[in-house]
Amino acid sequence: MADRSLRGMRLGTQSLQSEEGVEFSPRKKSIYRTADGKTFEVTFSADAEVPEVWESPKSGQEGVLLSSDGTPVETSRVESKIPRSHWDMLLERRSRAELEELLQERLDYLRARKGQKIGA
Question: Which DSSP string do the residues of 8-66 spell out, in sequence order?
Fold first, then answer.
């Protein structure tokens, strides 16, 4: 009976696929330096945009991207637009006096409606 038993593989422990014929996508290594002078490498896809700052996987400090000669990469900082709040956009459309008048009208309407419900 023992000679007729089936032998199998454990599920999920080993893959039956091999890496033969697999072509990996092109990659590039970027080197970053932390404030304490330690460097680390990060591998990116060849067509990916490499960020200027990356967090070190070992120390958790932010590292600055280094160029091929070992100097930090300096890019021109684009001045970002400050996000406008709802209040800023509202002030672009109406003056403060108009807003106060609209607020007063709305409050009067709500107070009148509340008074009608109480009296009914």
Answer: -PPTTTS-S---TT--PPPEEEEEEEETTS-EEEEEEETTSPPPSEEE-TTT--EEEEB
* 32 exposure class (CB count in 10 Å sphere: 0-12, 13-18, 19+): buried
Given a contact cutoff of 8 angstroms between Cβ atoms, the answer to whether 63 and 30 are in contact is no
- pLDDT tens profile 26-82: 999 999 999 999 999 999 999 999 999 999 998 899 999 998 888 888 776 777 888
85, amino acid identity: S
Distance CA 13, CA 88 (A): 59
Give me the residue label for tokens 């970053």.
Answer: 32
